[in-house]
Amino acid sequence: MQRIAVINQAGSVGKTTIATSLGHALALAGRRVTVVDLDPSGQLANGLGIFRAPSKGIDRVMMNGTTLGSVKMAVRDLLSLIPAGAELLQMEDNQTQGATRMQLLRQATEGQLVDQAFVLFDAPSSSALLMMNAIFAADELLIPVTTDSSSLNGAMKTLLLVKRLTPYLEKPVAARILINRYLPRSRDGKAVVEKLEKHFSTLCLETRIREGAAIEACAGIGRTVFEYKPGSHSAREFHELAKELVMLHDRNKPAIV
Predict the structure, then answer these.
(1) pLDDT, tens digit, for every residue of 193-248?
(2) Which of 55, 66, 168, 226 has a C-alpha 20 to 30 A away from that of 189?
(3) Where do the H-state alpha helices sit in the chain?
């Protein structure tokens, strides 16, 4: 099982869309996948067609010791969801002290979901505590970077955060950068890509997700791009992304921070 946190300290980089689309792409490739919503806004459930937010989810698992099986929901063939839950925002008020606060997710999921090939954590940029919980629980970080400077700065801050946390991690965490909402003809986009390839070439995935109307429309209707526009370039690119990650996972090829 590979646990991947989709994470960037910058907002509006497409983390939830990536978690939804990549999760479904991996499932369509025949892998068992669970996506975990760590964002109190609960948008991951909406993207999978669940518009009435479940009241119980990963919040109860982390704070009350509820079992994962009791909140896990089958949403597509081979694809399950663990929703955020109504009380996830209260995590910031958790009184547990020290490093233990950052390891609640890891402790709650340890030895669980062992029948899954991939577990994807949709990590929020708005909560430092939930973001750090995602890092402690993950084997690997998938950092989306759009072609603007704020998302690049957010990615760099995320990598620096991981370096600071490394002494407290049970094992080194791998990191990969995904260029998202790519505009090939954009001057600013080309500049960001050049910086990434110059400074983080070993972390950059080969697959790039271009800007696309189809992918943007999906969240509002509760369908993935494979259901809404299966022939679109967005669908093809997410299939390629899933294929690349499966290949790297099967080769056991880390990209250590």
Answers:
(1) 888 888 888 999 999 999 988 898 887 899 999 999 999 999 999 999 999 999 99
(2) 226
(3) 15-28, 43-47, 58-64, 104-109, 128-137, 149-165, 187-199, 213-221, 225-228, 233-251
Q: Yes or no: say if 38 and 122 are a contact pair by the CB < 8 Å rule.
A: yes
Cβ of 212: how many Cβ atoms within 10 Å?
A: 18
Burial class (CB in 10 A: 0-12, 13-18, 19+), 209: buried
Domains along the chain with CATH numbers: 2-251 (3.40.50.300)
Collapsed DSSP state (helix, strand, coil) of residue 227: helix
Pick left, alpha or beta for residue 128 (phi over 0 → left; psi -120 to 50 → alpha; otherwise beta): alpha
* Phi, psi dihedral angles at 94 (to 5 degrees): -60, 130
Q: Which of 19, 6, 9 is nearest to 150 (CA)?
A: 9
Is residue 29 classed exposed, middle or buried when 0-12, 13-18 and 19+ CB atoms within 10 A define those classes? middle
Helix axes 149-165, 128-137, angle to 10 degrees: 60
Q: Is the backbone of residue 176 left (phi > 0), alpha (psi -120 to 50) or beta?
A: beta
Give me the phi and psi of 214, to 5 degrees please: -65, -45
Which pair of tokens denotes residue 255? 């990209």
Of 78, 54, 53, nearest to 66 (Cα)?
54
